[in-house]
Amino acid sequence: YNPPICEFAPITNNQIFHAIGKLSPYKAPGPNGICNCVYKNCTDLLVSYMGPIFCATFTLKHYPEDWRLSSTVVL
Length: 75
Known about the structure:
about 0% strand
C-alpha cells in the first residue's frame, strides 16, 4: 500500500453536524427505517450520542455489519 496522504483524525461533533446538515430531509429511509428528517430535526440531541459511537468504530476497529447495508429504491 502507498503511505497515507494525511494523518488520521477522529470524527468530531462538528463533522457530524455538517454531514446531517447536508442530508436531504425527504429521502426514503434506509434499512433502519429512520428518515433523514428525524436526524435533521433532532441533531442537537443525537450528535452527543453519535460522536462516541462513530469514534468507537475506529478505536475498536469494528464496523457493524448492519451499517454496510443500504436500500436502493427505483421509482
